[in-house]
Write a structure and sequence with these properties.
By secondary structure, the protein is α/β, with parallel strands linked by helices. The protein has two domains: 12-218, no CATH class; 221-310, no CATH class. 45% of the residues lie in helices and 12% in strands. It is built from ten helices and six strands, in the order H-H-E-E-E-H-E-E-H-E-H-H-H-H-H-H. The chain has helices at residues 12-18, 26-37, 87-101, 152-158, 185-195, 207-213, 221-259, 262-290, 295-302, 306-310; strands at 43-47, 63-69, 74-80, 115-121, 132-135, 169-174. A six-stranded mixed beta sheet has the order 1-2-3-4-6-5, sandwiched between helices. Helix 3 links the parallel strand 3 (74-80) and strand 4. Helix 7 (221-259) packs antiparallel against helix 8 and helix 8 runs antiparallel to helix 9. The longest helix has 39 residues, at 221-259. The protein is globular and about 60 Å long. The termini are far apart.
């Protein structure tokens, strides 16, 4: 049995911001994606977009990379820490935006790009016992219950074998649901994402290079300080959201019970939750402004109306 590594590793989201955009570290990202997608992935380039440019907005917990692989497919990798009830719609918007960004004017629909959305979630999302979910688009007959397939001419036109190969695919990695030892190479990557530890015996593609490259001690003093500030901000924002979410639940329950009606209890509970979450967002925005960020940027990151911050 191995002992835990004494080397402290930076988190994957920070690596996505600072390290994984370098060609020297493509092997790490290729390894993670190869294990997840079940095929050898080779990265041609990492593309810039409004969501992954370096800026003062990096304090937001949204982190993503847009990768183009050797099959001319586009892979979005996103990390999310805070609850978002409409996250499924955000995933849909993200893939749709990539498709439209890369569709040249006047080109046939058959040239639309293939997009794969990889979502690493550190909050409880949906109901289900698994920690990785894969979503695709298929068409099933209403009467015969058969699966619609591409004919030979369509396969040649699209360069795809199955209909689901044309449409976006989604991977949801629910980190909080992983509570086991690593039994597969993919599990080794999930273990790292949850525990920030890579064991010596791990054999997954790219993971040992990640262990070496993600060492906190290998960063410059300036980068170490920036990393520490980033982690402090994440913990503070998560604490605010959780605290105000819990407070909203309590206040909502109390208000509902006073009404003495089931309808009042439900409405009071929901209103309390909403008030608590909004108050938490406002406090996050005020803290960002205190650190020197403009009111406009702070309001955009926290997701609140600018007028609230200026009162």
């Amino acid at each position: 049995m191995s002992t835990p590594s004494s080397r402290k590793l930076i988190t994957f989201d920070w690596a996505m911001k600072r390290l994984l955009r370098s060609k020297a570290n493509f092997e790490i990202l290729e390894g993670f994606l190869s294990e997840l997608l079940g095929e050898d992935i080779f990265i041609l380039e990492i593309l810039e977009s409004e969501s992954n440019k370096e800026s003062r907005r990096d304090k937001s917990n949204r982190v993503d990379l847009k990768v183009k692989n050797s099959k001319s497919e586009f892979i979005i990798i996103e990390v999310q820490f805070d609850r978002e009830l409409d996250y499924l719609q955000r995933m849909l918007y993200g893939t749709s935006r990539v498709i439209t960004e890369h569709q040249k004017e006047g080109k046939a629909y058959a040239t639309l790009v293939k997009v794969i959305s990889v979502n690493i979630l550190y909050f409880d999302f949906g109901h289900g016992s698994d920690y990785i979910y894969h979503g695709t688009t298929t068409f099933t007959g209403i009467h015969d219950h058969d699966k619609l397939e591409l004919d030979v001419r369509q396969q040649k036109q699209y360069g795809k074998i199955q209909i689901n190969n044309i449409y976006p695919e989604y991977y949801l990695i629910r980190i909080n649901n992983f509570n086991r030892i690593a039994t597969t190479s993919l599990d080794e990557w999930i273990y790292f994402l949850k525990n920030e530890e890579i064991k010596d015996e791990f054999k997954a593609k790219g993971i040992q290079k990640a262990k070496k490259s993600f060492s906190l001690m290998s960063l410059s003093e300036k980068e170490q300080l920036a990393y520490a500030r980033y982690q402090d901000d994440l913990r503070y924002q998560a604490s605010l959201v959780e605290s105000n979410y819990g407070l909203g639940r309590i206040e909502g329950k109390e208000e509902g019970w006073i009404e003495g009606k089931e309808e009042g209890r439900i409405e009071g509970k929901e209103e309390g939750i909403e008030i608590g979450i909004e108050q938490g967002k406002l406090e996050v925005a005020e803290r960002l402004v205190a650190k020197g960020m403009s009111a406009e940027e702070a309001a955009a990151i926290a997701g609140i109306n600018l007028k609230l911050l200026r009162h």
